[in-house]
Write a structure and sequence with these properties.
Layout lengths: L1 E5 L7 E4 L13 E2 L4 E3 L5 E5 L3 E2 L14 E6 L14 E2 L8 E8 L5 E5 L5 E8 L3 E7 L8 H6 L7 E4 L9 E8 L7 E2 L1 E9 L8 E6 L2 E4 L5 E4 L3 E12 L3 H10 L5 E4 L11 E12 L5 E10 L2
Antiparallel strand pairs: 1-16, 1-21, 2-9, 3-6, 4-5, 5-7, 8-15, 9-14, 10-13, 10-16, 11-12, 11-14, 17-20, 18-19, 20-23, 21-22, 22-23
């Protein structure tokens, strides 16, 4: 089990992107009604109208006009950095192949860049700095072929996650260039981008369980007719981790520091279990049982973010 401790990446770290705003830009001559969404030119957020108004600027560069507007979310250019997988940055579907591009300027050290909520054909990460030069492309096709029938007729499965955790540790100022290519005549999208440093906690043994928490709702009316409201879900992993004796204190310290912090958890890096045991989320609880002379068992409960 590895955990990627996130570095702080703010919209101000994004020096370039090809994305456009998806909401109209606020205008001082438009009459806005409750619920309307607007973007502003001097902020990273989308604003929602909470009281009908005209010529009430949502944000003056310092404060939010809270009598008429509320901050709704990061706008499309920067939604990939709001720590929410369900709100993503989306390309404009005007070409056969669309792209999402970001240039991120970093000053903190890191060795991992992770992506969740991906939609597309492939993704490339290039890192340049005084201490490293790195470039890698990952295809997002995830097809499991077990026989000839599946070879010819299997439905293409799109992998929604990509982890670049083989980056040599980057020291000092550096630049991360990201390009996500769409499939033909579709949009490219990314829900969350995480830049961080990975720590090895211990071996993930057999006995680990995976599942989901489904937020969908079932409703049955007075006549017995049942309908379903399909909503988001989050992944869940429950794992006993084998921590070598000398790392018990270190593991306790790392996990204590990461409480209430969304992190990337990598339970296994093999092709068989990598996707199932990779989660972006937080741990709900952990306990370390010192049972054996050479290693201890850390029980870890991880809940993914939607």
């Amino acid at each position: 089990m590895k955990v990627v401790k996130p570095r702080t990446v703010l919209p101000s770290n994004v020096s370039a992107t090809n994305l456009l705003n998806t909401n109209s830009i606020w205008s001082n001559v438009t009459a806005y009604t409750v619920g309307q969404l607007v973007d502003v030119t001097n902020d990273f957020y989308t604003y929602q109208c909470i009281q009908a108004n005209t010529n009430q600027n949502p944000y003056n560069g310092t404060t939010v006009n809270s009598a008429y507007w509320r901050r709704y979310s990061f706008n499309n250019k920067f939604a990939a950095f709001d720590q929410q997988v369900s709100t993503g940055s989306v390309s404009q579907n005007t070409f056969i192949t669309n792209t999402v591009t970001f240039t991120i300027d970093m000053t903190e050290g890191f060795d991992t860049v992770a992506f969740f909520g991906l939609k597309g054909k492939s993704i490339q990460v290039t890192v340049t700095g005084s201490s490293v030069s790195y470039s890698k492309t990952i295809l997002l096709d995830d097809v499991l072929i077990t026989d000839w029938y599946e070879y010819f007729f299997s439905e293409n499965i799109e992998n929604s996650e990509a982890i670049f955790n083989d980056i040599p540790f980057v020291l000092g100022p550096s630049t991360i260039n990201i390009t996500i290519w769409s499939r033909d005549n579709q949009t490219a999208e990314v829900g969350t981008i995480v830049v961080g440093t990975q720590y090895f906690l211990g071996h993930t043994p057999y006995g680990t369980s995976v599942g989901i928490i489904d937020y969908s709702k079932k409703e049955t009316d007075e006549f017995g007719n049942t309908s379903f409201v399909k909503r988001a879900f989050s992944k869940r992993v429950s794992s006993p981790i084998e921590v070598i004796a000398g790392n018990v204190a270190k593991t306790q310290r790392i996990l204590s520091d990461l409480r209430a912090t969304p992190c990337v958890w990598i339970g296994d890096e093999s092709d068989t279990y990598r996707t199932a045991l990779t989660v972006y989320g937080f741990y709900r609880d952990f306990s370390i049982s010192i049972q054996y002379p050479s290693y201890s068992i850390c029980e870890l409960e991880i809940e993914g973010l939607t």
